[in-house]
Design brief:
The protein is an alpha+beta fold and 86 residues long. It contains two helices and four strands, in the order E-H-H-E-E-E.
Length: 86
């Protein structure tokens, strides 16, 4: 199970290091930082499921996660695909 808490004051400098946010203005980065929440996910727990509605964006600050995608391929039947994010 994940635990959410308000992000620490140092989230703004961290966001500046994320390539996805590199083109954002100072004002937008400040606003984004104000809406951030820190989530800690213990090993073996899930952050979200494939069918969940997209309500958040997650940026891995430390550690790594495995993303498991389930797909049906006509010639191969059901299968799972693993994506490791570090």
């Amino acid at each position: 199970m994940s635990k959410a808490k308000p992000a620490a004051d140092n989230v703004r400098p961290f966001l500046e290091t994320v390539p996805l946010f590199s083109g954002l203005s100072t004002t937008i980065l400040d606003d984004l930082a104000a809406h951030c929440r820190s989530v800690q996910v213990e090993k073996g727990n899930y952050l979200f499921f494939q069918e969940d509605a997209a309500r958040s964006v997650y940026v891995v600050r430390s550690g790594w996660i495995v993303i498991l995608l389930h797909s049906k391929v006509a010639f191969d039947g059901d299968r799972d695909a693993y994506v490791i994010v570090t």
